Amino acid sequence: MEALQKDNKGEGENEEVRGEEIDRWERQDDEMEATEEDGEEDAGMGEEEEEEIGQEVHERRDVIDHDVNAAPPEEDEEVKRLIEAGNMEQLANLVLNGEGHRLIGQTSDDPDLQGFLNNVPAYMGKIRAVHEAAQEGHLRDLQAALDRRKFAIARDGSNSMGSTPLHVAILFGHTAIIRYLAGRFTETLQARDNSDRTPLHYAATMADNGHYYNLLLKLGADPTLKDNLDNTAEYYMKNPGILTHQDLLEEYGVSGEVANNMLEDKGNSPQRNIPVERSVFWTEEGRYLANALGDPLVRGLTEVANTRPSDPIAYLATCLYNYANTSRDVRNDTQESAMMITTGPPEAVGNFAAPPPASLDEDPDTIQPASDSPETALTSANRDEHGQSMLHFAAARSHGRNALFQLLQEADINVGYRDELYRTARDVAIQAKLPENIQDIDKWVLYMAARGETDKLMELLLEGYDHILDVEDEEENHIFDVVQRRNQHETMAFLQSIPSFEEKREELHSAIRRGNVEEMKSILTPEAGKGNLLAVAKNVYGRCCLHIAVLCQDEEMTRFIAVNFRETLRAGDNLERTSLHYAMALEKVEPLSTILIKAGAKRVLKDLKGRQPTYYFMNKSDILRLKDDEEAMNV
Q1: Which residue, 427, 442, 474, sits at the end of a domain?
Q2: Own/partner pairs for 77-83, CB < 8 Å, 24+ apart?
Q3: Contact 466, 493 (CB under 8 A)
Q4: Are 477 and 347 in contact (CB under 8 A)?
Q5: How far apart are CA 43 and CA 635, in angstroms?
Q6: Which structural domain range is residue 295 located in?
Q7: Of 112, 275, 95, whose CA–CA distance to 203 is shortest?
Q8: Cα-flanking dihedrals φ and ψ of residue 558, to 5°?
Q9: pLDDT greater at residue 572 or residue 277
Q10: What is the pLDDT of residue 519?
Q11: What residue spans carry the Acidic residues bias annotation (predicted)?
Q12: pLDDT score at 526
């Protein structure tokens, strides 16, 4: 739906409100990566039972599949009133509550609203896919379909229960799905069905010795919530005959015979659901193992389950090795930051910690991960769907002296990241009229330069950060003076090269916009690696040369850059959209996407909104606006 938004300033106030409602509906998506702790096996369900359940579920689906394509009621006064009022939020709630079929075939004179109505079947299909994956225990399918956060609590309207995906996952005993949904989307823990029962109420009926019940409590479920009969989940656990797992399954559409075979413990005592603590974790050895190895093992096993490598043992070993290295680096950085006292201006800090000798950084026994090794999630920028990091939020608020600088020391966030409005954290501080925050950010840049951290300054330059050379300390000493005083010759040479590098970058981007292939090739001709750096360098809009070539729909330029500078294929813009994301929204989608994919572009990479490139094939407006911006720059 975000694809339907319009930014025309002449629109009336009502249209702006509708745009905000569309925006809220659309922006609930998140980076839906399976990084949560979902490594447990599904609770003991045999293959025969699963097959039998699957047959019943598919039979039930056949009965309800007509809902998506069914015509709406001839007279649905409520829907008509909502459409006439342009109430996008309430219409979206109908879809999320499993009543999307009421909107099928409805029309509106408002183009934004009509665009939403046209997309209702697609939204219903996604919600249905999430529920099907939750039923069948297919975590990957669920993650693929769950590209909007609100789908995690959406109902599919396939039965009268009004259950959400977490309700369904508990009902069918899929532990990995339960861990993923409850751990990643905490709002699912409080979601209710049509009888006001939470997932914890469902878990209380399971004959699993309280395993799911305790799991949900640990993940944050509220045990005090009551259903429409004024009963808590604990009440059903202590009174197992009042509401049973079989009752819920039959209400869902599964036969009683199959229900009897699901998740039943060998014992059949009346108190089978009373929680039983696992004694191993009460021992000293158990507590040590849980604290020392629990998190890395769960993360590693989750990666193995999701990736399914050819050599799972070596793959797990690589995961654990990378986890240990990352944890060690984080501890070292924290200890180093704690030892630094920065009470005066940067140039008064006489003893910057010198970087370790190169020989200490080299590890001859470094394990080289396999080609299918995972990319650690700890290297992510931790930015939200609007491109903002914690630094953007911190820059918009006043703090005590040096507080923002200390945050930068501890978090080590790249200050060059831009949000969806192309603002760095420094830009946010300027708009908030907080000069002390601007000074702290400049102080951080000066601090890195004084320490000779040329690599980090290079990251800023490649990110398109444009406030490196104009930095001064509190005594108005220019960055060149401070670096020269510290005898950081390599850093000084780098700083001096920045103006010519930025000029070359702009010449390159301009040549691409003008369609001058020869000029582009001459600029990108490798000179001691400068061609590679220019290729991945982003401008103040977060776009590298491949982004621009794709927006210009120039196949020859796109092929040259993609083939010769493959690192550009993974380069993301201010919202981490790759060139393939761009290509999917353009007229020449087929030749451009073919070129990019053959060169090595990945079709599964998600942007900060959790969208894969294919999303923009149907929702083009965001990318088309970028295309218009690029065309305007060429005037």
Answers
A1: 474
A2: 79/103, 79/106, 80/106, 83/108, 83/113, 83/117
A3: no
A4: yes
A5: 63
A6: 284-333
A7: 275
A8: -60, -45
A9: 572
A10: 93
A11: 28-54
A12: 61
Residues 76 and 133 in one domain: yes
Instruction: Indicate if the alpha-carbon torsion angle 223, 224, 226, 230 is positive or negative.
Output: positive
Per-residue pLDDT at 3: 36
Is 498 a residue whose pLDDT tops 90? yes
Among candidate residues 474, 499, 524, the one where a domain is terminated: 474
Longest dimension (CA), the chain: 82
Buried b (16+ CB within 10 A) or exposed e, 378-406: eeeeebbbebbbebbebbeeebeeeebbb
Identify whether the C-beta of residue 626 lies closer than 8 Å to the C-beta of residue 551: yes
The CATH number of the domain where 578 resides is what?
Answer: 1.25.40.20
Place of tokens 């309280």: 210
- C-alpha 270/C-alpha 239 separation (Å) is 9
User: Which amino acid type is present at position 307?
Assistant: T
Q: pLDDT exceeding 90 applies to what percent of the chain?
A: 38
Question: Which residues in 41-168 belong to E strands, given as ranges?
Answer: none
Q: What interhelical angle do 589-599 and 555-564 show, nearest 10?
A: 10
Together in a domain, 156 and 220: yes
Neighbours of 482 (CB within 10 A): 22
> Given a cut of 80, is residue 265 above it in pLDDT?
no
Task: In whole angstroms, give the CA distance from residue 10 to residue 7.
Answer: 9
Give the pair of three-digit tokens for residue 1: 């739906």
CA distances 356 to 359, 360, 471, Å, are 8, 7, 26
pTM of the model: 0.44
pLDDT at 169: 93
The predicted pLDDT at position 8 comes to 38
Confidence of residue 551 (pLDDT cuts 50, 70, 90): very high
* 436, burial (CB in 10 Å: exposed 0-12, middle 13-18, buried 19+): middle
Helix (H, G, I), strand (E, B) or coil at 354: coil
Which is more confident, 282 or 432? 432
Please check whether residue 440 lies inside any domain of the structure: yes
- H or E element, residue 500: helix 489-514
In order of 418, 547, 564, 634, the CA distances from 523 in angstroms are 26, 17, 13, 18
Structure tokens, 129: 């896919």
* pLDDT reading at 245 higher than 50: yes
Structure tokens at 295: 């998190």
Q: Report how many domains make up the chain.
A: 4
Q: Name every residue whose Cβ is closer than 8 Å to that of residue 99 and which is 6 or more positions away in sequence.
A: 157
Helix spans in 365-434 (H): 390-395, 403-411, 425-431
Is 352 part of a structural domain of the chain?
no
Asked if 86 and 221 sit in the same domain, the reply is yes
CA distance 609 to 23: 12
Q: What is the DSSP letter of 9?
A: T
221, 179 Cβ separation under 8 angstroms: no
Lowest mean pLDDT segment, chosen from 144-153, 439-448, 608-617: 144-153
DSSP codes of every residue in 589-627: HHHHHHHHHHHT--TT---TTS--TTHHHH--HHHHHHH
Tokens of 47: 């293959």
Q: Write out the two tokens for 127.
A: 């919600």
Same domain, 423 and 560: no
